[in-house]
Design brief:
Shape: flat
Radius of gyration: 40 Å
């Protein structure tokens, strides 16, 4: 059906931006013009479907126009989203990239206006991840995360989340590796933003840890290891080899040569930004979140299956390290029994092994009180034989002792008495790194099991050592009350006396007639506390039971109890602050749930001076010393200079003739013979 329209209408129909603006202001007045465009869509789509790989400027502008004004004529355009969706579903992989992006943006605009359901468009977008278009995948990824976040902003949409999670579970098994990887990235990003932070999301990602595609496997492992998502390589190239990381100085030196251009400047800015980010991440303290690991339904089965995959995998060593890291953290967090893991790990514990400190850290992470002591004892013997020997350097020995300390602090029964007493002998080693590492091991067993140490190494008996009970394998200590709760009454009484004294002193200051001194009783003036008798210990226990059952503890109370327990272990009174610096490995030091790499690599040594400190040392040594010079100096520094000295400051062009004459004068007899011979030969040739 054709219609005749006048010239103003023709001009308006050809200018879609102007028509779009007018329709948004007054939809009813321009409905006829809109219907002209809506009728022409069918013809454009019919022509386009004949050759979907081509670009149609008319269809591109028309789709964008209809999407912009769709909210004004929602009833007339109720079939429009389905038409665009059908084209993308049928011809997504063969569409021209610009045309495909226009259709996607139109659907996004329709979804934002509420004209299309979230389920249909999101499932379609997940399928579009199969397209070989990096810009399209990035656009879809950002929109999916943004849309799901908005849906769950006010309250959780459980029905939609369950539908999408089930669909994404099938996408993770897609034959297209790129689509599966992007779907996994969406789930990880939603978990990281606390949108889908539930057990179902975590256990779906668990299944991805056994993928045969390296990129997908690495992304899942990094998720459970708590790595920064920005560290992941999101490129679609198959080459996963990372370029060597350069420092800021090396990057600037490389930029000095070559032609300067805007492209090279942008590349330089990106490289400097990445170098700065690497430095910041390196200086940032390592914090590990175990939330994802705790949401796994079957950690024992997962760890056993992952270990079986690790034993037969042919992946790169870096991927194997990540798998070992995850297994060790699973064992440590859930206190699993995985006996085959320790012999496998023991094969790599050699000083020359690549990333050996990380492997030692994994051994410490996989240690807990429920591990059979004989399994860890073999690991400790391997570390002692390969690291803690005089044939190795002091740094290697210190790292070995630190590893033993970290393992024994989590499983005190793992080491035999003979081996422990042998390692303790390094407390008098001439190297400070080894000596400090051995003493930190002593501190661990002073707290956990002093009977394994020599009597001279057990330290001074304290009240805490008498109260401590040495536990056997699988044994746990339970209390009917909070240990040390009786001290709270004494602290409250002291605070009350202090307040009364302060108020009394203020009254005395206000009294002008009183000039005398006031005797103040300080607890620091008391003599050393006497040994606690069994009767006093029983009385304290009853008092602690009474306080625990009748008093509601605050955070301040728990803080004071912790200070009291630390004071007991140090053998000092509660109100006296210890000036002694804590050593790494001290039992009183707060330990996190998982050991850190810094605990293993903590080598005590005198650090080398940096450039500024070396320069300051050099300048300090020059103070009071004359100016350095060679040869005889003139008596009067203001006297005139000689001709020889003046010649040094002249330009070369002024003195080059003198240099030539001087060179001729200084020729040796042999040089003169050669010059004469060459001159005679030259003259003979001219005569001929």
């Amino acid at each position: 059906m054709s219609r005749e329209i006048d010239d103003p209408h023709k001009r308006l129909l050809t200018n879609l931006l102007q028509l779009q603006n007018l329709i948004k202001r007054d939809p009813d007045s321009y409905k006829e013009e809109f219907m002209w465009k809506w009728d022409s869509l069918e013809d454009c789509l019919h022509v386009f479907k004949m050759n979907p790989g081509s670009y149609s400027k008319e269809l591109d502008d028309l789709v964008s126009f209809l999407a912009q004004v769709s909210h004004c004529y929602s009833e007339e355009l109720k079939d429009f989203p389905e038409k665009i969706r059908e084209i993308l579903q049928s011809h997504a992989t063969v569409l021209e990239p610009t045309m495909r992006m226009s259709f996607v943006k139109a659907l996004i605009m329709l979804r934002n206006k509420g004209l299309i359901e979230a389920t249909s468009i999101l499932e379609l977008f997940f399928r579009l991840f199969r397209c070989q278009d990096k810009l399209l995948r990035k656009t879809i990824f950002n929109y999916i995360v943004h849309d799901i976040r908005n849906i769950n902003a006010k309250h959780k949409n459980v029905r939609l989340n369950t539908t999408l999670q089930n669909f994404m579970y099938t996408m993770l098994r897609d034959n297209n590796a790129v689509a599966a990887k992007m779907s996994l990235d969406v789930m990880i990003e939603l978990y990281r933003r606390n949108i889908w932070k539930d057990a179902k999301t975590v256990n779906v990602i668990v299944t991805v840890c056994f993928s045969k595609v390296t990129k997908i496997l690495v992304a899942a492992l990094k998720f459970f290891l708590g790595r920064d998502p920005t560290e992941e390589d999101n490129s679609d190239s198959e080459d996963e080899k990372q370029a060597p990381q350069k420092s800021t100085k090396e990057i600037m030196l490389a930029h000095r040569v070559g032609k300067k251009s805007r492209k090279r400047q942008k590349k330089l800015d990106r490289a400097l930004q990445m170098a700065k980010k690497r430095k910041k991440n390196k200086e940032k303290a390592e914090v590990f979140d175990t939330t994802a690991l705790r949401l796994i339904h079957d950690p024992q089965g997962f760890s056993e299956k992952l270990l079986s995959q690790l034993e037969r995998t042919t992946e790169r060593f870096e991927v194997k390290l990540m798998m070992m890291d995850l297994i060790s953290r699973l064992v440590g967090v859930h206190q699993l029994l995985l006996e085959n893991f320790y012999p496998f790990l023991k094969r790599f514990l050699q000083p020359h092994q690549k990333e050996v400190t990380k492997l030692l850290l994994y051994a410490a992470q996989a240690s807990h009180e429920l591990v059979p002591p004989e399994d860890l004892e073999q690991v400790l013997k391997t570390i002692a034989d390969n690291f803690i020997t005089e044939r190795n350097s002091s740094e290697v020995m210190a790292v070995g002792l630190n590893s033993v300390r970290e393992i024994c602090s989590r499983c005190p029964l793992a080491i035999s008495e003979a081996l422990l007493q042998d390692l303790v002998q390094y407390k008098t080693h001439k190297d400070k790194a080894v000596m400090m590492a051995a003493r930190s091991l002593i501190q661990v067993y002073r707290h956990s099991n002093p009977e394994l140490l020599h009597k001279k190494d057990r330290g001074k008996p304290t009240e805490a050592t008498k109260e401590r009970k040495i536990l056997g394998y699988g044994e746990s200590e339970t209390h009917e009350f909070i240990p040390g709760a009786d001290i709270l009454l004494k602290m409250d009484q002291q605070e009350q006396e202090q307040e009364e004294w302060e108020s009394a002193s203020e009254d005395e200051d206000m009294d002008d007639d009183s000039d005398g001194w006031i005797d103040v009783h300080h607890s620091s003036d008391e003599e050393e506390e006497k040994e606690v008798t069994p009767q006093e210990a029983e009385d304290r226990k009853k008092l602690a039971q009474e306080v625990s059952s009748t008093r509601i503890m605050t955070q301040e109370d728990f803080r004071r109890l912790q200070q009291s327990q630390l004071a007991k272990e140090a053998g000092i009174k509660t109100n006296v602050k210890s000036r002694k610096r804590k050593r790494p490995g001290d039992a009183s030091q707060d330990r996190g749930e998982m050991p850190s790499l810094g605990d293993i690599e903590n080598v005590h040594k005198k650090r080398a001076h940096d450039r500024d400190s070396r320069l300051s040392t050099v300048m300090a040594g020059r103070e009071g010393r004359g100016k350095f010079s060679v040869g005889q100096q003139r008596m009067n520094p203001h006297a005139s200079t000689t001709n020889k000295e003046k010649k040094k400051n002249k330009a070369f062009m002024m003195i080059k003739h003198n240099v030539r004459i001087k060179e001729k004068k200084k020729r040796s007899f042999r040089d003169k013979q050669i010059a004469l011979r060459n001159s005679l030969l030259k003259q003979q040739k001219k005569k001929k």
